[in-house]
Amino acid sequence: MPQEFIHFINQYGYFAIFALIFIQEIGIPTPIPNELLMLFSGYLSFNGTLNLYLLLLTVISADFLGASVLYTTFYFFGPYLISHKPKWFPLSTERINKLSGKIAKRGLGSVFLGRVTPFIRGYMSVIVGLLHIKPKSYVPIALLSSCLVTCTYTLTGHFLGPYWEQVAAKLTTIKYGIFFIIAVIACYFVIRYFRNKKFKHASTATQETKPLDS
To answer: How far apart are CA 121 and CA 114, in angstroms?
Structure first.
C-alpha cells in the first residue's frame, strides 16, 4: 500500500474507505484495487483502528451504491453514453455486446456470477442497465453480491491480522486466492438456481400433461 493512501485512510477513516471504493465502483480507476483496500481495511479493524461492524457497513454501502449509480446511469442514458464513451472506459462496444448477449441468453444467474467475477464485476452494472433489467430483479442481486465480495475480503484481512507483516508481502497471491473462493461460491449458487428452475419447470410440465381422473 502506498504511504499516501495509508495516511489518507488513517486520517479520514471510514470516509476515505467509502470514497475510494465508491469511486472505483462507478468506473473511475484508482491506484489501489478495491480488493487490496478491503484487505488492508480488515487489518485496521484487527488492530483497533477501525470498528469491524462499521467497516463492514461502509464497504458494503460503498460497493452497492457505486454499482447502483452505474446501473441507474446506464439504465436511463446508456445509448448516449456508449456512443460518447470516454477514452478511459475499459469496455469496448464489442465486449459490451458480447456480455449483453450472454446475459440475455443465460438470465439473472449470469448477472450474479458476473457481479462476483474479477475484472468485469463492476461493469456488469453497465450491461444490466443497458439491457433495462428491472430494478426489482437487479437490486437483490447487486446487494447480495456486494455483501459476498466485500465481506469476504474485509473479514480475510481482519482474521489475517496477526500475520499481517507476512501477508503484506503476498497480497497479490492472496487476492487471487480469494477470487477463486468467491468464484466457487458463486458457481454453486448459480448452478443451484438453474437446477431449481429446471426442476420447477419439469414439475409444472408433468402436472400439465398428467391426465385428469375420470
So the answer is: 5
Cβ neighbours of residue 5 closer than 8 Å, sequence gap 6 or more: 20, 31, 32
CB 149 within 8 A of CB 182: yes
Amino acid at 212: L
How is 68-85 classified by DSSP, letter by letter?
A: HHHHHHHHHHHHHHHHT-
C-alpha grid cell for residue 100?
449483453
With contact defined as beta carbons under 8 Å apart, do 135 and 164 qualify?
A: no
Residue 210 gets which letter from DSSP?
A: S
Side chain identity, residue 112: F
47 alpha-carbon distance from chain centroid: 26
Is the dihedral angle over the CA atoms 138, 139, 144, 150 positive or is it negative?
Answer: positive
How does pLDDT run across 161-206, given as a tens digit for each residue? 887 777 666 666 666 666 666 666 666 666 665 566 665 555 555 5
Which of 15-19, 168-172, 205-209 has the weakest average pLDDT? 205-209
Q: What percentage of residues in the chain have a pLDDT greater than 90?
A: 28
pTM: 0.75
CB proximity list for 51: less than 8 A, separation 6 or greater: 45
pLDDT of residue 212: 46
